[in-house]
Amino acid sequence: MTESLPGTPVPASADVPAVPADAPVRVRFCPSPTGTPHVGLIRTALFNWGWARHTGGKMVFRIEDTDARRDSEESYQQLLEAMAWLGIDWDEGVEAGGPHGPYRQSQRSEIYQDVIARLRDGGYIYEAFSTAEEVEARHRAAGRDPKLGYDNFDRALTEEQKSAFRAEGREPVLRLRMPDTDLTFTDTVRGEITFRAGSVPDFVVVRADGNPLYTLVNPVDDALMEITHVLRGEDLLSSTPRQIALYRALHAVGVARYMPEFGHLPYVMGEGNKKLSKRDPQSNLFLHRENGFIPEGLINYLALLGWSLSADEDIFTREQFIEAFDIHHVLANPARFDVKKATAINGTHIRLLDGADFRDRLVPYLRAAGLVGEELTEREGRILDAAAPLVQERVALLGEAVDMLAFLFQEDGQITTADGALKGMPADLQGAVAAAREALASLDASSWTVDGIEAALRAALIDGLGLKPRQAFGPVRTAVSGKKVSPPLFESLEILGRESALARLDRFAAEQAVQQDGGA
Fold first, then answer.
1. pTM above 0.85?
2. Distance between CA atoms of 518 and 290, rounded to whole angstroms?
3. For the chain, does the N or the C end have fewer beta carbons within 10 angstroms?
4. Residue 332 and residue 264: Cα distance in Å, rounded?
5. Are residues 473 and 484 in contact, defined by beta-carbon separation less than 8 angstroms?
6. What CA–CA distance (Å, rounded) separates 185 from 190?
7. Facing residues of 49 across strands?
8. Over the stretch 352-392, which tens digit does the pLDDT of each residue have?
9. Which run of H or E residues covers position 219?
């Protein structure tokens, strides 16, 4: 450790070693447990995870929970849930343990106090008593913009001045001495970036009550956990010179072994080319899950927010992502979250699922809609086995399947005709329904098959009444499902069964008769 008199500035050497070429990659995901996980945050986790898995390195999952007013256990559990749902695992961290624990900042107070003492002894941080009002007054007196921020005034306070401030009842914050030279680093995403000397004032690292701020504990944790790559959002780029200056001091006092590589991931934009906000519904990760995104589809799309597999490949598996992902190929330009494109990509991944897997993934959505119970009955299981293949090629979200299949699980008396479902029906709707009912009633149980049902309805409605196919089968579709559009009709009728299909046709016919009488 560098020896110095208390308060004497000791320059932190710029000669901090780079990450050794043979050092295994170590990345970290370190969210604060506030609010619901959003897609921008999870994209950051995904890119860190992808780089760790691509290189055979380690992913550290750390929780930054030093703000007791905003942090919550509920949010922490949601973070764990989000990571588990997407299959983004980690090697060290919360719930997993590891050699650098604890992995929640709220449990690392003794570690931080030791580092603070080293930095104070080395003269890298100093006591500052100036109030915001005093700083502004000094700027005005010098003809400067009063909103310039801290002016480094307290760097040269004497012990007598400090004693006088304490006698007034003031308690100092601790600030880090920023170097008086340019700070240059190579961003893995953006290339070389320089922050001019004096552009960043000395900044607070410890509150007046002795508690360290995020600006200190984040780099301290990264240094102690030997993080090699700090991959984070573009919004944190402006804080990088502070981190570099602090790393120099941490290296000087024996806390940091090397300077990590920094990479700032592009903004995720929403509608109107505005940065996607936590308050935007489309940023809510769990809302996308509720709508029926599957992990494979969402991971594929989130990976495209700043990176691509190739110029003409938008669809890939997580294994292909891991094999190809390179943090140095991430683009610096902002990426827009396009719900339509995300949904289309999700639909492709739904179609790639094994049929049995797709069937099982529908169950939670059917349950949430109240269509099935906690455990599937024999009837519900039989219906789902037969119905799932009818919609797998037709949906882009699992939630869409629920709406399409609901009529198969509902009781006959629960079917209601949707608005607009009667548009385009034959002029003689009741005649068509009666003919369809007579044709289906003529089938016995052994003939109640897709082929038997189709042959009977075609003979009665197309050959018998001369209707075109769309008009011919529309009344039957609406009678049994309540909608104008449904899964394939003949297969649906087979699943419903003879008695249920006939009961729904009778109920529909009766409703139309009442409406016609009322209209007359």
1. yes
2. 42
3. C
4. 8
5. no
6. 10
7. none
8. 999 999 999 999 999 999 999 999 999 999 999 999 999 99
9. helix 214-224
Whole-angstrom CA distances from 255 to 109, 120, 221, 434, 442 are 16, 13, 10, 85, 86
The region that residue 171 occupies, defined by phi over 0 for left and psi between -120 and 50 for alpha, beta otherwise, is: beta
183 φ/ψ angles, rounded to the nearest 5 degrees: -115, 120
How far does CA 277 lie from the centroid of its chain?
A: 12
Taking the C-alpha atoms of residue 312 and residue 367, their distance in angstroms, rounded to an integer, is 39
Using DSSP, state whether 191 is helix, strand or coil: strand
Positions of E strands within 88-158: 92-93, 125-128
In sequence order, what DSSP letters do the residues of 38-105 get, joined into one string? BHHHHHHHHHHHHHHHHHT-EEEE-B----TTT--HHHHHHHHHHHHHHT---SEETTTB-TT---BG
In which band, very low, low, confident or very high, does the pLDDT at 8 lie, cut at 50, 70 and 90?
very low
Of 67, 57, 65, give the one whose Cα is nearest residue 92.
57
Q: In b/e form, how buried is each residue of 142-181, taking b as 16+ CB within 10 angstroms?
A: eeeeeeeebbbebeebeeeebeebeeeeeebbbbbbbbee
> Do 58 and 52 touch, CB atoms closer than 8 A?
yes
Distance (Å, whole) CA 86 – CA 153? 50
Active site residue 468: no
Distance of CA 168 to the CA centre of its chain: 49
Q: Per residue in 449-491, pLDDT tens? A: 999 999 999 999 999 999 998 889 999 999 999 999 999 999 9
Question: What does 381-427 look like in DSSP terms, one character per residue?
Answer: HHHHHHHHHHHTTT-SSHHHHHHHHHHHHS-GGG--PPTTTTTT--S
What is the number of other CB atoms lying within 10 angstroms of the CB of residue 196? 11
Look at residues 237, 251, 235 and name the one whose alpha carbon lies nearest to residue 115: 251
> Can you tell me whether residue 201 is helix, strand or coil?
coil
Residue 245 φ/ψ, nearest 5 degrees:
-60, -40
- How far apart CA 250 and CA 205 sit, in angstroms, is 13
The terminus-to-terminus CA distance of the chain in angstroms comes to 98
Q: How many CB atoms lie within 10 A of CB 204?
A: 17
Q: From the candidates 162, 274, 275, 278, which is the catalytic residue? A: 278
Token pair for residue 82? Answer: 């989000």
- In terms of DSSP bridges, do strands 173-176 and 125-128 run parallel, antiparallel, or are they unpaired? antiparallel
User: Residue 474: which region, alpha, beta or left (left: phi > 0; alpha: psi -120 to 50)?
Assistant: alpha
